[in-house]
Amino acid sequence: MFDAVGPITIRIALASDSAVIAALHAASWKSAYKGILSDAYLDGDNASERMALWDQRLYIPKAGQYVAVAEDGPQIVGFACAYGDEDQRWGTWLDNLHISPARTRQGIGRKLMAHLALWCSETCSSKGLFLWVFERNLPARRFYERLGGMAVEETTWTAPDGTVVPDLRYAWKDINLLTPDID
Q1: Cα(174)–Cα(171) distance, rounded to whole angstroms?
Q2: Terminal CA-CA length for the chain
């Protein structure tokens, strides 16, 4: 797939990618969660919090964890983190899908989702996929709905800043719906 800047390639994340992934994660939160999480939290030092998380995930990965990055040349412009067969009913849990705020709406998220679906079909016993998305994150919800995801459950999540946020579970019973974009 080609976008406005160049060819996007997907690869497995390396431990040495943790700082770049953490910075992208923090930037994505600041952009996507404005008005959902508190400004004080988003404007604060959540980058160091994300760094601790990604150091742990990439240096000491949990069983079933899969992290992929999307690159435009040498630059990481997006990433996804999933846990295979995490839930008996819903299947693989997509915990993170973040694209650089400057690179949204260029097909990078779709390509990461297709790559993740292919990984699931090859390595997971369950062929379902699910994620949690903030109810007020309408751009993300529309993206997942365009990919065939359906809101199947509502709960709340307590953010690191203490904000209680309505959260929706989106699920795909058939991950093959996500793979038509594989090159």
Answers
A1: 9
A2: 7
**Residue 56: how many other CB atoms lie within 10 Å:** 12
Q: Taking Cα atoms as reference points, which of 126, 128, 55, 68 lies closest to residue 96?
A: 68
- CA 9 to chain CA centroid, Å, is 16
Torsion of CA 39, 80, 82, 33, to 10 degrees: 20
With the C-alpha atoms ordered 158, 80, 104, 49, is the resulting torsion angle positive or negative?
Answer: positive
Distance CA 67, CA 105 (A): 21
Q: What is the pTM assigned to this prediction?
A: 0.90
Cα angle 108-112-114, degrees, rounded to a multiple of 5: 115
For the ranges 32-36, 58-62, 84-88, 173-177, which has the lowest average pLDDT?
A: 173-177
- CA–CA gap between residue 38 and residue 88 (Å, rounded): 34
Rg over alpha carbons for the chain, rounded to the nearest Å, is: 16
Span 15-49, pLDDT tens digits: 999 999 999 999 999 999 999 998 888 888 778 88
Contact 81, 65 (CB under 8 A): yes
Give alpha helix (H) positions in the chain. 18-32, 39-43, 46-59, 108-123, 138-146
Superfamily for the 8-178 domain: Gcn5-related N-acetyltransferase (GNAT) (3.40.630.30)
